[in-house]
User: Fold these one by one.
Assistant:
Number 1:
Amino acid sequence: MTCRDAMFAALACGSIAAFASVADAAIVRVTISNIAYAPAKIAAHVGDTVEWDNKDFVVHTATARNGAWDVNLPAGKSGRVLLKKAGKIGYYCRFHPNMKGEIDVSAK
Ligand SMILES: [Cu+2]
């Protein structure tokens, strides 16, 4: 039984924190509505995935200013990126440059 299983089974696991940092990559969700990212600023860890959920009726993107990724987000669709490096990454929408977001990626 893994530590994670034990947490669900018994609500107690002494090493859950250490275990979680290795195995439990999170999905950090950002909603897009009314031509804006919400929340605009998020914090995440290396190995986490960011998922943008486009609730608007127009296409958006999440385009990293450093060129690391460019996620196309058709109307009503979602898209993901895996965070591979620590550091602050600013991003924007190629179609609506006023749409701005930031991800503060910390090491594990
Ligand atoms: Cu857009």
Number 2:
Amino acid sequence: MVDIHAHILPGLDDGPRELAQSLAMLRLAAQSGTTDIVATPHASLKYPYRPAAVAQRLAELRAAAGDLLRIHAGCDLQLHYENIREALAHPERYSINGKGYLLVEFSDLIVPRHMEEIFAEMRQAGLTPVITHPERNWLLQQRLRDLESWVSQGCTLQLTAQSLFGRFGREARMFAIQLLERNLVHFIASDAHDAQDRTPRLDEAWRWLARRFGAEYARLLLEDNPKAALIGEGVRTPAAPQKRRRFWQLSFWKRTGR
Ligand SMILES: [Fe+2]
């Protein structure tokens, strides 16, 4: 699997503080089937993005990790005015591997006006916005129509794996499922911050998706689309996943012939 959103660089944001903690996260990711992980430190008002420090930590972590797994460059970009200008001016600096897919995070307090124009400008600059964990943002939970329209405009959506299991509350879990059922989700990523609580494990999400929607769907969201993002190729929009019927529903079908 490929994890396109993980805070694994030490000492830069609210992720790991020490290199040893970063390595513990990488070991856990590798053990649970992740082959590639994108280091996405915050670029936010609280944690400004420092390109030189990011490059240095990335090099150190790659050297320490050896061939445990491949580590790619990325950024978790908060959508505010300066960041938007900066990303449009330097699309290669902030997108995944410099290939165009850009993680964008909405604030919990406000959805900027004219998002369609902003996303259109990003598309023109060669960027594909990846809207991160909309299911965890209570403003976006009320904005299904907008999310649909942004996706039809060429944006992509990324859910946090742990949302599927209720880590961010019932509303987030229900909205995540609703987005999946509406074929609006392109990626599932860990958004890991540590090796204990917000971990980089994706295997549980893979199994959950495969059980509920089928293995092909799990592969698309956790392997194929994230791999395409690494190399800047087009992602596929999921094709109407059918919710698997449970055993009791199947027996009801057999009994009633429906
Ligand atoms: Fe994040």
